[in-house]
Amino acid sequence: MHTHKETILVVEDDPKIRNFICYTLKQEGYPFLTSSSGKDALSTVVSQSVDLMLLDLGLPDIDGMEVIQTVRQWSELPILVVSARDRDNEKADALDSGADDYLTKPFSATELMARIRVALRHLQRVQKDQSPTVLTVGELSIDLEKHLVYLHGTELHVTPLEYNLLALLMKNAGKVLTTQYILNELYGPRYGSDTQALRALMAGLRRKIEKEPAKPRYILTEIGVGYRMIGE
Q: DSSP assignment, residue 51?
């Protein structure tokens, strides 16, 4: 058995199918994580190192389509849908939403592994073609490939959400991002317009990157509109 380094997230609420997939991955030497709900899957993608998601669409809390759309707002993580939905329009919707491939249940272990190998080869080609991307504003820099943040050359510890917020702002340095746009990017389009979580997240991030959080130098508040990262 060959041992692989790529970690696969199995998002499936049916125990029998989940066990079958996990057994197959184990036999092939792939490390894996499991989620039985959409919200748990999104949390896992943010907090863990995942190289490929196997996603069932019929989840108990949120539909798999929403999971795809949410992940695609901030990640190019390969997503292989494994679903009993076999209508062409449903497959097209999943692919249009950002899924990379679609496998209809029931499927064999051989076909599953073939699709996984294709998805991972594509990921490896993309990673090989991309040079490290580092964005810098003043003494603050973010390595988008390694997911690391530095201030004055020293690595900062930030949470996954703080990283996503900082990356979003730095990719749009100099632009005003509305509060609703940021909420949609961080939490998904169904989150609504409650800004309390964003304010708390912003306060925590500012405490880490600003010398005087009450007088921010990097992330400026545009009253009544949103926030802006100073230009490079």
A: S
d(CA 32, CA 50): 9
Neighbours of 226 (CB within 10 A): 20
Q: Give the other-Cβ count within 10 Å of 27's Cβ.
A: 11
Any alpha helices (H) in 10-147, and if so which ranges?
15-28, 38-47, 64-72, 88-97, 109-129
For tokens 């090989």, the residue is 128
Q: By C-alpha distance, which of 129, 113, 11, 149 is closest to 67?
A: 11
pLDDT at residue 130 greater than cutoff 60:
no
pTM of the model: 0.56
184 within 8 A of 194, measured Cβ to Cβ: no
Bridge partners (DSSP) of residue 143 are 134, 148
